[in-house]
Amino acid sequence: MVTLSSINKEVGKIIKIAGVFIVFLLIAFTLIRLATIFIPKAPEKPQKAFGKLPQPDFLASQINDKFKFNIDTISGNLPNLPVIARVYKISNPAPNLLALKNFEDSAMNLGFKNRTKVSNIYYRWSSEEPVSRILTLNIQSGDFVITSGILKDPNYTSAPLTTGEEITAEASNFLDSLGVLPDDIDNTKTKIDLLSLTSSTLVKATSISRANYLKIQFSQKDMNNMPIVYDQDSPMSLIITLPQGSPIVVGANYSHQEVSHDSSTYPLKTSQEAFDELSNNKAYILFAPATDSVSVKKVYLAYYIPKTKASYLLPVVVFEGEGFLAYVPGVKDE
Q: Which of 40, 158, 272, 292 is least surrounded by CB atoms within 10 angstroms?
């Protein structure tokens, strides 16, 4: 016969067992947490799905001097960089006659007419109002350039220039009107240079009052919290002036390389390995001071897009200093 006393004993046993089980779970959970804190994870193995990668297609450096490099970062040391990074394929569009027709329609709306076939891949249009301009398109790559005699006229004087938002908006609207404004542009990185004409060459002006042209350079958005870097100038740049008080694009060098979602991870050089290559004259130096000693103040990872059409978006280690900029290929040689 079941009595109240026997029921209480059974309930007491169940409570004790449950209590022991709960304590066991708490101990197990604590041990797991401690393990995740004190036992390092096994490093992620690089996928290397694209096989052996090409080297970044750096331009031939005009700076071959041997420098003595000093590490002058905030910490006084080289940073610990990630050991792997993603490499992305770059999409290279095929020639498209429909794209040519659409581009021509857009160009004509901007005043460019009289199409001329220069070669199998180059087409040219001209515009005479409000100034003489020539637009040349590479239908294979989608790249285009704009030239104008006003960029070589020593007697030309622009209406007063401004570097306000309306100028960057004018540049963006021009690309949008041509149907080539990319959606990966980071407007917060847009750069404006003041230019003047000296001995038939455009150079940076010392002040806006001495400038006759504005050079607008666009940059692409970061990838995986890493900036995209180029050569000294962005491959997506326009030159604007105000011949009659209204802004007009009189120069352009436009080349956009679209990064695809197809990617794979690769091992990276350490900051010390990259610094050793820099010290051994194996870096692409974009500019340097007129001294034999350089203080490196910043070291970081970035993705590099060259002037030539690339197959991959490759990481580089960037070294910055006072009047100094250099890139070292980031993928470890294996």
A: 40
For the chain, domain boundaries: 1-41, 68-90+261-329, 96-256
* CB 236 within 8 Å of CB 145: no
- β-strand pairing of 228-229 with 293-304: parallel
Task: Give the mean pLDDT of 260-279.
Answer: 96
pLDDT, position 250: 95
In the chain, the amino acid numbered 245 is: G
**This prediction's pTM:** 0.83
CB 330 within 8 A of CB 275: no
The least confident of 14-28, 107-121, 266-280, 317-331 is 14-28
Question: Cα–Cα distance between 234 and 218 in angstroms, integer?
Answer: 6
Q: How far apart are CA 70 and CA 291, in angstroms?
A: 13
List of E strands, 119-257 = 122-127, 133-138, 144-148, 191-198, 201-204, 213-217, 228-229, 236-241, 248-254
Query: Between 208 and 37, whose confidence is greater?
Result: 208
In the chain, helix, strand, coil percent, each to 5?
25, 35, 40
